[in-house]
Amino acid sequence: MGPTPLSGAMRRAWTVALQALTLMMLVAEATSAETVVVKVAQGQLRANVRHLRGSEKQMLKCSGIPYAEPPVGPNRFKDAVPAAPWEGERSCSSECSECAQPLNPAAGSFSKGSEDCLCLNVYAPFPLLSGVPVMVWIHGGAFVSGDGGEMIYGTDSLVNEDVVVVTLNYRLGALGFLNLGTEEAPGNQGLKDQLMALRWVKNNIAAFGGHPENITIFGESAGSASVHYHTISPESEGLFSAAILESGSALNGWAFKNDTRSNVKLLLKAAKCDPATASEPAAAVACLRAAPARALIAPQTAFKSDEDKQQRALIAFPPSVDGRFLAEEPCALVAKRSGAAVRTMAGFNSAEGIISIALARFKGGMAEFDAGLTEGRGLCLPCEPCPASRSTLRRWAAETRRHFLAGQPLAEDTLQGYVAYSTYNMFFRGILDAVRARAKSSTVPHFFYEFDVQSELNFAKMLFGGQEINGSSHADELGYLFHNKLQPSHDFANDSVEVMTRQRLLKLWTNFAKTGDPTPEVSDLLPVKWEPFSLQDEQYLYIGNTGVEMRQHPLRNDCSFFESLWKDVS
Q: What are the residue boundaries of the Carboxylesterase type B domain, all occurrences included (predicted)?
């Protein structure tokens, strides 16, 4: 006798039950396949696993990991302390807030972000391996804006090259760099946040398959200057073995200011505190701590002291001497060969100064920038000769105008020349000085490059409004190293400039991180050997639309021009 047939109602009930059971099994299987628990010093983290963009490979993604306690309330302006342990599992599926910053750094009228922001993100090849080279990214943004999130810094392409990538947040603006010379506001809090993050990486990255003895730090603009600071600060020694500097160094004029007291008075006034307390650190800090963060953040890109206007300073609160992380001025530390054992790759973009177009055009600032050029504001850099007399400086400025702008005023038809001047003066000189110093004092190889590619991935050039200017803008290389949500969504042909340049940069950067040599072997993609920089020939790799080639003496004519000026004071 066979089984009793099920009624229609029972059959439907069993069907629903089986469907529910099947769904539960699928959900459980998907959950176990898409998340994984990673144990770090503070506790357990539940991370997500997903496929890399355009690849069959997978990536473990763990976002929003706290490396320090929130620097809020009585801890505002103080050095950070390590994050406390937690009980049970902590999800790391979401990024934390960006650090408090102006909504628009150029305007400075509103703020966004939070003071509870000291976290990092880890992206690792999956399944997890061991001994994988690590690359730690430090974002730029003039020490006043930016974050390590995936809006701009999507890491899929880097992880696809079999490296572990870490991105991080650090305090910005006055919250990150106010220096009153006291324990309550010691200065360089943002740099020391980065330092704490690097210590976290050193101690925990093995849990993600990373090699704690093969860590490369890299950054762009203010992030690049930060990287350079870590190479010359004894506090960071031993936390990494290599560094990549993209368009910035501690020797750039905008990257250091030894006395910010004039801006402290303006900050106190903006926070409705008594400016007279600028000379009374305890009273100043007490009032500034009581103010809402937005009162400290929003106005600081708009105000400039008379001294800053005279020097054409771009940043109100950059790094400064704090007696610990930065015991002396950068020039002195570089002269003492600090960090000489760290292998370095550094370079600049061919039209960095396109960013100055956006600044000059903002609120009709062209006339102010032209006046600054006449006065020679920002013409002298920290480690280079500078005339003592105002008349000599003005003569230098006039000769500079003749060299770059054919003696003409700054206007729409002389922008190409002004971009060349800004490229050289704002970025190239400080980077070249840093590389020359390393080549002079170090026995390990250092590599120099120029990036000069123009394609649809040059997102920064589009943002800054410099499409009519030849060359690669400040930050344009980021569109090739990272995926960002401002790029075109369509695919490119495999032999396109976009795809070929992306492949070249990814291979050069990750080869350097893996081996210390960006071209350990030549190939169809990289058909020339990148030779280390030497003081005699100043070799550098030129990266253009059609490929790469070795050249010598970057921006030789501009270098010769400024060296001729220096004879006045040498």
A: 36-562
- Whole-angstrom CA distances from 506 to 477, 511, 513 are 11, 8, 11
pLDDT, tens digit, for every residue of 27-60?
Answer: 333 334 599 999 999 999 999 999 999 889 999 9
Which H helix or E strand runs over 286? helix 281-290
Same CATH topology for 34-339 and 349-365+416-570: the answer is: yes
Q: Where are the domains of the chain?
A: 34-339, 349-365+416-570
Give the domain 349-365+416-570 fold.
Rossmann fold (3.40.50)
| Lowest model confidence (mean pLDDT) among 188-192, 279-283, 395-399, 486-490 | 486-490
- Residues pairing with 175 in the sheet: none
Tokens of 535: 């003081």
The third-level CATH classification (topology) of the domain covering 34-339 is Rossmann fold (3.40.50)
User: Cα(106)–Cα(21) distance, rounded to whole angstroms?
Assistant: 56
Respond yes or no: is residue 221 known to be catalytic.
Answer: yes
- How many Cβ atoms are within 10 Å of 86's Cβ, its own excluded? 12
- Give pLDDT, residue 535: 96
CA dihedral 430, 513, 446, 454 (to 10 degrees): -50
**Amino acid identity at 360:** A
Band the pLDDT of 25: cuts 50, 70, 90: very low
Of the residues 95, 115, 161, 352, only one is catalytic, namely: 352
CA 42 to chain centre: 27
- Amino acid at site 375: E
Strand ranges in 424-476 using DSSP code E only, listed in sequence order: 446-452
Can you tell me the distance from the alpha carbon of 395 to that of 375, in angstroms, rounded to the nearest whole number? 9
Region of 471 on the Ramachandran plot (φ > 0 left; ψ -120 to 50 alpha; else beta): left
Q: What are the structure tokens assigned to 473, written together?
A: 């803008």
The two tokens of residue 90 are: 């902590």
Query: Model pTM greater than 0.85?
Result: yes
Among the listed residues 111, 145, 157, 221, the single catalytic one is 221
Q: Judging by beta carbons within 10 Å of its beta carbon (0-12, 13-18, 19+), is residue 496 exposed, middle or buried?
A: middle
pLDDT at 108: 53
Cα–Cα distances (Å) from 474 to 197, 285, 434, 457, in that order, read: 26, 36, 18, 13
- On average, the pLDDT of the chain sits at 89
Residue 201: what are its φ and ψ, rounded to 5°? -60, -45
Supply the pLDDT for residue 422.
Answer: 95
Tell me the residue type at 77: F
In 3D space, the residue among 135, 156, 159, 137 whose CA is nearest the CA of residue 146 turns out to be: 137
**Would residue 352 show up in a list of annotated catalytic residues for this protein?**
yes
CA dist 49 and 34 (Å) reads 5
